[in-house]
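Need tokens for this chain, all 183 residues.
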Amino acid sequence: MVIDPIPIRLTDGREAVLRCPASGDVEAFLENYRVCVAETPYLNLTPEEANRFPLEEERRFIEGFGSSPDKLLLSCFVDGVLAGTCDIVFQTNLKARHRGGVGIAIQRRFWGLGIGTAMFRAMIEVARSREGVTQLELEFIEGNARARALYEKMGFRVCAVLPDAVRLADGTLLNEYKMILRL
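Here are the structure tokens for all 183 residues:
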């Protein structure tokens, strides 16, 4: 799925744009994800795993979003720099097509500028415009208070917990929380 670019104004007054990434953005997309994974333990991959993604595989990943009517990938560009990405994937089977899953990753230097809020507003708008979709879902890892605050601000509520779902490199086990937003 592809949508028109969305201009946004950041809390520091700068302008940014939310847009679907093109295959020419693949290197910036990979670098953004590598930076995000290195900055926080709250994403699903380790930095070592993120560094193993081949360029062509990521290009196909990005193009797959653009060619699918059931998935949307948005990137935020600030002063020409890829600051973060978010995605929504809609379920397609009959019993679950009322659901969509959301994910987000923003580089630390761009936190607190309103990018996450703008991305979620765009995703929620897309979900609301899709016939039959009645709920969005996401997960966050225990300790990720910033993310949880954003999700709750956008209307998501915790509905389940998966105990000890994530094991950090030092052996620490963390819970994973599932949240939903009823549209």
